[in-house]
């Protein structure tokens, strides 16, 4: 039973809601994740950063110094587009990915989720269409759905968003008289696919979008968290007018401060700022100035290197145990950075209907269907290796392997798995919960 | 020249924007406020809380203790509806205003501005209508405009929103087949009017809305900041199903943490949470836990009493100097709490066109037009006494008196004031800036 049908019976305000509200539904898998948060369950579901790798003393010293020096500013209302000093520092950070910009073109937001919300708010009317990779970030799909925007999925290959498929989709849409408001892409350490676009691929995608006159929204929360040493160049590095770049401190510092940003062309950032002021007046100065002081007084790039090592060790544990425990016919991606491995199950296995049995076996994941708008992904699941210890990851993958072996046995014996398809939970583009980030 | 017409010529993305974006315009008076932020100008414009009255040591101790005890939670993603412990504490706070509720029915937001945005998002389609006092909070008008919602202003008398006018307006709308999605009201220490509804008035307004089947949105950022000792009872105290109550820590603790809340009926708070997750994933745990620890470990009600004294002293300075310096024919409200005095100028004086001359005379205010959707308020201005020192307030009001005397002299001599009406800046429901909170 979904919250929506629940509401139909019990909520006396139902007739009052806006049309967009009827598309906001709670995910059925949430109740499963409530069970999955029990300590005996290994959760490979959540995309929570590994905050334990950050020294609490360093954070404490940063905020104490910040309050002593800039407390009156930190506790007060600030600019709708963010603290000027932090916007300068963001310019220095994005320069690491080849982006040249000016602090005036940076809009600080309450996490990059809010940047996504504002971009969609200023560009998209109900019924508009955007293009996104398949699979795509569940939180972005939740935003598009909340604004009643249609999503056209374009396939990925092992190098990410596939240029030929993108060109053809844009041409088909153009032939229908429909121009997408933007192409939404995560080129680096993709959530959930665990893939990165090589530079040549980025150039092709940009050229296709430029030719079609379509904006690119480049979502890049993991760009600095690569395991191979070099930092990939952003698409935004090659086009300052046609690309809106979204970044975040959630994975390089701490998610609980909720500080992200957009780098946007001049006219767009004015609209983003006006929309931000209507939405929240201003982002929290308290969080922004804490981060600004931390960046100024601490060796923050060393901390990023620590995070990389933490995640690399966990990525290795995930890949090794997948090789050890997955049954034949299972494939998965090999991420060079970020938080996620994308798993494709053997034919006939349904990751969505299998989830309750996995949770019973004390392992949780996010079924692939969460990352598509259209019901694709039943044969996929996402494994997050960011948060558990390497040993817990190995144990979780071992349990998952056991569940899969049982599923395959049922399939071979009865020609179907245990779950009746009709009652299987689905999570198609439901609102993002903290468990499915 | 507005930003909008500016954008028409220079912004290559103009054709891509959503319809709602064309109603998001920057206020022309913003550039004046940039001048007004020079130190020699006394600003009676901004609604910034007087943070200097809060001990920075107390804040610093609270955050240090919080990081030591709950740092791993503070730096991590949290629930979309806010920290469970803080929601319990909010229940205790709203109980001071007679509200009985449960932590599950509290949704923590990024300032109460975000609560306003989410309420409008879940209830209002483009073209819907809501009812609001005249004048009304500029930030609320900015939200309604951003969602393309029509605002029907209902007049106030000396006791706030006028019941007969409200009933008649609801009847007129009903006769047109239009049911407002809600009545938006600030019953206590109104921004900008400086008035409060007596209990009997609140009961009448609630009864009218209940009879008409219309929700009440009760916006209450100043409820604990009264100067007369007793805390007014909220409208929400008398109806838990028909009233959504909005509160904030911005004025009782610090605005820079951006923590507000909604208390909402069961079905509505589920929708608010889903909308919040799409908008920002979750409010900042870092801010929430700082406040939670502060409330738990510090005598926070003593701090509220300190704030009351700070604002009472400034209210007195404002009222005394208005009596001393305003020319005959000027009237103003006498607030028993909150931040604002609403001034009505002598016939023939236009507060909007006078503003540039006031800034030249080194005093700033917000013209009345900012607080109406429809161009009313030219004969009004809002004075904020919250932030300057009492001496600065007196000096600012003295300068304002001088400007008014000059305006009256021009009016008496030439039959008009100096400003050509055609080029007068307007600020009708433009996006709220920090200066016009």
Report what the structure shows.
The structure is a homodimer of 437-residue chains. Chain A is an alpha/beta fold. Chain A has 2 domains: 27-47 and 303-436, Aspartate Aminotransferase, domain 1 (Alpha-Beta Complex), CATH 3.90.1150; 56-297, Type I PLP-dependent aspartate aminotransferase-like (Major domain) (Aspartate Aminotransferase, domain 2), CATH 3.40.640. Chain A has helices at residues 3-10, 29-36, 56-74, 84-95, 111-123, 138-146, 163-175, 199-212, 250-254, 266-280, 285-297, 300-325, 351-360, 390-414; strands at residues 42-43, 106-109, 129-134, 150-157, 160-161, 182-185, 215-219, 243-248, 260-263, 331-332, 340-344, 363-364, 366-367, 380-384. In chain A, helix 5 (111-123) runs parallel beside helix 6, helix 7 runs parallel beside helix 8 and helix 12 (300-325) packs parallel to helix 14 (390-414). Chain A is globular. The model of chain A is unreliable at 1-8 and 420-432 (pLDDT under 50). At the A-B interface, helix 1, helix 3, helix 5, helix 6 and helix 10 of A face helix 1, helix 3, helix 5, helix 6 and helix 10 of B.
Question: Topology, please?
Answer:
The structure is a homodimer of 437-residue chains.
Chain A: H1 3-10, H2 29-36, E1 42-43, H3 56-74, H4 84-95, E2 106-109, H5 111-123, E3 129-134, H6 138-146, E4 150-157, E5 160-161, H7 163-175, E6 182-185, H8 199-212, E7 215-219, E8 243-248, H9 250-254, E9 260-263, H10 266-280, H11 285-297, H12 300-325, E10 331-332, E11 340-344, H13 351-360, E12 363-364, E13 366-367, E14 380-384, H14 390-414
């Amino acid at each position: 039973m979904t919250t929506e049908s629940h509401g139909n019976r019990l909520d006396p305000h139902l007739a009052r809601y806006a049309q967009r509200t009827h598309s906001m539904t709670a995910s059925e898998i949430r109740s499963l994740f409530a069970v999955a948060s029990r300590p005996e369950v290994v959760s490979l579901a959540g995309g929570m950063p590994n905050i334990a790798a950050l020294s609490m003393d360093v954070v404490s010293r940063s905020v104490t110094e910040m309050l002593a020096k800039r407390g009156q500013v930190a506790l007060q209302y600030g600019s709708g587009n963010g603290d000027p000093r932090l916007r300068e520092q963001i310019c220095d950070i994005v320069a690491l990915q080849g982006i040249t910009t000016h602090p005036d073109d940076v809009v600080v937001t309450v996490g990059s989720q809010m940047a996504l919300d504002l971009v969609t708010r200023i560009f998209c009317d109900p019924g508009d269409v955007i293009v996104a990779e398949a699979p795509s970030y569940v939180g972005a799909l939740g935003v598009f759905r909340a604004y009643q925007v249609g999503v056209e999925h374009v396939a990925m290959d092992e190098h990410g968003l596939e240029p030929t498929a993108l060109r053809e989709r844009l041409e088909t849409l153009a032939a229908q008289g429909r121009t997408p408001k933007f192409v939404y892409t995560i080129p680096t350490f993709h959530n959930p696919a665990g893939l990165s676009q090589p530079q040549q691929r980025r150039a092709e995608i940009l050229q296709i979008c430029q030719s079609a006159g379509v904006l690119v929204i480049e979502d890049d929360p993991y760009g600095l968290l690569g395991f191979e040493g070099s930092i990939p160049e952003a698409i935004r590095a090659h086009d300052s007018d046609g690309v809106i770049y979204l970044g975040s401190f959630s994975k390089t510092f701490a998610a609980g401060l909720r500080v992200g940003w957009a780098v946007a062309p001049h006219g767009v950032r004015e609209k983003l700022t006006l929309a931000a002021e209507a939405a929240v007046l201003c982002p929290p100065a308290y969080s922004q100035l804490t981060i600004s002081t931390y960046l100024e007084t601490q060796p923050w790039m060393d901390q990023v290197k620590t995070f990389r090592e933490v995640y690399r060790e966990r990525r290795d544990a995930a890949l090794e145990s997948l090789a050890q425990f997955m049954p034949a016919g299972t494939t998965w991606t090999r991420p060079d950075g970020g938080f996620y491995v994308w798993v494709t199950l053997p034919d006939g296995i349904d990751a969505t209907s299998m989830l309750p049995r996995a949770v019973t076996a004390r392992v949780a994941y996010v079924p692939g269907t969460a990352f598509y708008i259209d019901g694709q992904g039943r044969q996929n699941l996402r494994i997050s290796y960011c948060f558990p210890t390497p040993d817990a990851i190995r144990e979780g993958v071992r349990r998952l392997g056991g569940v899969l072996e049982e599923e395959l046995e049922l399939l071979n014996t009865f020609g179907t798995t245990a779950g009746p398809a009709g009652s299987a939970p689905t999570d198609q583009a439901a609102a993002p919960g903290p468990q499915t980030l």
